[in-house]
C-alpha cells in the first residue's frame, strides 16, 4: 500500500459492506486515516498490502508480525464491488506472501461469528477454528461472539492445493 492508495482504501473501509464487520464502525475521516497510515507505514511490524487482479485494486490486507518467531495476525477486506471469488484469490496471495516471502510460521485471524463470508473463507483456506470468544465484542447494542482462526506454515501448501482443485 502506498500513499496514492489512501483514498481508495478509505472508501472501501468506510463502505457498509466492510464497516459492519469491523470492531470500529464509525465513518473514518481523511485526517484520521492519514494519521493511521503515517504510523503503520513506518512500523516494520506492519505490512499493508493492496490486492490486485489484472492491475485493478480489489482489496486490502494487513499483516501484523508480533515479536520474534514469525507469528502474525492478518486482517483483510475486498472492495465492495469486487467480483465473486476475489476473497479467495486475495487470501491465496496473502498467505503466499506470509509463508513464502515473509517466512512466517503462523498466521491467525479473528472474525465476528456473524460474518459468514469471512468464516467460510477462513475454513476454505485451511485455517483451523481454534477458539470461540463468547460475547467478546460489544457493538454498541449487543455482544457478539468472535472466532479465532489459525494456520501454520506446514499446513498451507496442502490447503492451497485443495483450494485450487
Ligand atoms: C470476507 C470477504 C473478503 C470475502 O470475499 P468474497 O469475495 O465474498 O469471497 P469469495 O467470493 O472468494 O467467497 C469465499 C467463500 O465464502 C463464501 N461466501 C461469500 N459470501 C458469503 C456469505 N455472505 N455467506 C456465506 N458464505 C459466503 C463463498 O461462497 C465462498 O465459499 P465457497 O468457495 O465454498 O463457495 C468479503 O466478504 C469482505 O470483504 N467482507 C467485509 C470485510 C470483512 O469481513 N473482512 C474480514 C474481517 S475478519
TrEMBL record:
Single Gene Ontology MF annotation: protein N-terminal-serine acetyltransferase activity
Top-level taxon in the UniProt lineage: Bacteria
| Organism listed in the record | Rhizobium altiplani
Can you supply one Gene Ontology CC term for this chain's record? cytoplasm
| Residue intervals of the N-acetyltransferase domain | 1-150
Protein name per the record? UDP-4-amino-4, 6-dideoxy-N-acetyl-beta-L-altrosamine N-acetyltransferase
The record's listing under InterPro entries reads:
Acyl_CoA_acyltransferase, GNAT_dom, PseH, Ribosomal_N-acetyltransferase
Query: What SUPFAM superfamilies does its record include?
Result: Acyl-CoA N-acyltransferases (Nat) (SSF55729)
* Pfam families hit by this protein: Acetyltransf_3
Amino acid at each position: 500500500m502506498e500513499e496514492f492508495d489512501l483514498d481508495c482504501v478509505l472508501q472501501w473501509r468506510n463502505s457498509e459492506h466492510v464497516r459492519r464487520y469491523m470492531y470500529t464502525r464509525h465513518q473514518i475521516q481523511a485526517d484520521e486515516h492519514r494519521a493511521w497510515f503515517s504510523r503503520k507505514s513506518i512500523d516494520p511490524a506492519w505490512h499493508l498490502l493492496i490486492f490486485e487482479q489484472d492491475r485493478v485494486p480489489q482489496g486490502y490486507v494487513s499483516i501484523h508480525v508480533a515479536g520474534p518467531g514469525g507469528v502474525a495476525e492478518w486482517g483483510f477486506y475486498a472492495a465492495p464491488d469486487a467480483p465473486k471469488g476475489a476473497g479467495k484469490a486475495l487470501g491465496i496471495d496473502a498467505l503466499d506472501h506470509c509463508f513464502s516471502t515473509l517466512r512466517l510460521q503462523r498466521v491467525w485471524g479473528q472474525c465476528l461469528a456473524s460474518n459468514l463470508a469471512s468464516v467460510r473463507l477462513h475454513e476454505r483456506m485451511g485455517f483451523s477454528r481454534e477458539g470461540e470468544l463468547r460475547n467478546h465484542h460489544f457493538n454498541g447494542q449487543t455482544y457478539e461472539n468472535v472466532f479465532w482462526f489459525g494456520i501454520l506454515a506446514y499446513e498451507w501448501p496442502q490447503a492451497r492445493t485443495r483450494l485450487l482443485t
